[in-house]
Q: What sequence folds into this?
């Protein structure tokens, strides 16, 4: 991985500017955050700010100037997030969930009104950022990674890793309301006129980016946005773990992303297809009976078959369900072993010490034996029995 001196210089200059800008309150009250009021002490205490900051190819201010666009921005401990968050009226049935979430967040930001029935852009931004930070801790735990793992700077340098699970800079998320604006950003920044949700490896700063358009994905519901962001971040955090240097097995990464999304809210599902883009598939809230049927008919893809699938093109609708279930099984019954298995897989190095993604099927087979003490056939049997005993028939 190349990290040119000029890039480091640019990064540090921009960070210095950020610090200067943070000290100011926005002059106009209408631009002031309704959650933290841009209060420097409150922002500092909660390890967040509303920019400007370095982002994507340039920085948040330049993006707004170039595109004549006024999103809201937020930087937290592990993320930089920006975008449009249209006002959202909380549906009657969801009020309880949101009130509980807001009551919790009020402990950090006293100005929050937990009984509010409409979330403005600042509420939505702060709530999404909060959910993303919670997810970061959850993901790190699932990966079998200690919160202290990347805090030792000299150890990071020795291993050639950065502080963000192995990446050098924070994970980035961008949410556009309009498809056209999203396309314009994609063209300007990454040189691709894509409009589907996209993950991007920003090699200049060694960080992983994820973006989408609400209009394109027909996202109205706040939980649907939350789910699609968590799905994208599942991939990015997994990829970033011990540094993104080679591709992880597709069953593992897609299975994990589904597991995260479905654990958060099973009503909204995202499916990855080729080239890292995402698309929506059939709607089915409860996947468990469907997986049961596949096992009973002996039609579920086996571990032995799945470990060889190299691309999203080789994963059909039923495979998505099976991948999810296999992760559900491993994370629920063998969380510690799963973390060790995954950590070994992402940490592979060749004889010269370089990241090694070769012979991934052998590595997985050996990993199953070493960490779970199962051959792939044994793993298959264990999973099938567990799913039949655990999942409802209807
Ligand atoms: Zn705020």
A:
């Amino acid at each position: 991985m190349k990290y040119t001196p000029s890039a480091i210089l640019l990064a540090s200059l921009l960070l210095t500017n950020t610090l200067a800008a943070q000290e100011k309150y926005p002059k106009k009250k209408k631009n002031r955050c309704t959650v933290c009021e841009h209060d420097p002490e409150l922002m500092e205490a909660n390890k967040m700010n509303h920019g400007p900051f370095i982002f994507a190819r340039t920085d948040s201010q330049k993006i707004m100037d170039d595109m004549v666009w006024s999103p809201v921005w937020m930087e937290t401990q592990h993320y930089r997030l920006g975008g449009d968050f249209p006002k959202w009226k909380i549906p009657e049935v969801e009020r309880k969930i949101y009130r509980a979430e807001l009551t919790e967040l009020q402990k950090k930001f006293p100005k929050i009104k937990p009984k509010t029935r409409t979330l403005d852009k600042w509420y939505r931004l702060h709530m999404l950022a909060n959910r993303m930070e919670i997810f970061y801790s959850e993901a790190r735990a699932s990966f079998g990674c200690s919160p202290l793992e990347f805090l030792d700077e000299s150890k990071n340098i020795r291993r050639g890793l950065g502080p963000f699970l192995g990446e050098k800079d924070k994970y980035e998320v961008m949410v556009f309301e309009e498809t056209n604006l999203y396309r314009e950003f994609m063209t300007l920044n990454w040189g691709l006129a894509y409009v589907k949700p996209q993950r991007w490896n920003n090699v200049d700063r060694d960080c992983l980016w994820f973006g989408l358009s609400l209009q394109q994905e027909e996202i109205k519901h706040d939980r649907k946005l939350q789910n699609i962001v968590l799905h994208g971040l599942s991939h990015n955090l997994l990829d970033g773990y011990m540094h993104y240097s080679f591709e992880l097995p597709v069953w593992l990464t897609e299975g994990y992303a589904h597991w995260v999304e479905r654990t958060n809210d099973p009503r909204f599902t995202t499916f990855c297809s080729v080239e890292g883009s995402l698309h929506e598939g059939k709607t089915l809230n409860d996947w468990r009976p469907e997986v049961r049927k596949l096992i009973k008919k002996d039609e579920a893809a086996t571990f032995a078959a799945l470990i060889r699938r190299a691309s999203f093109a080789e994963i059909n609708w039923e495979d998505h369900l099976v991948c999810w279930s296999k992760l559900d099984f491993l994370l629920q019954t063998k969380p510690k072993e799963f973390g060790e298995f995954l950590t070994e897989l992402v940490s592979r190095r060749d004889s010269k010490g370089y990241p090694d993604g070769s012979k991934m099927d052998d590595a997985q087979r050996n990993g199953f034996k070493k960490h779970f003490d199962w051959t792939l056939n044994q793993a298959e049997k264990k999973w099938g029995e567990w799913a039949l005993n655990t999942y409802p028939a209807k």
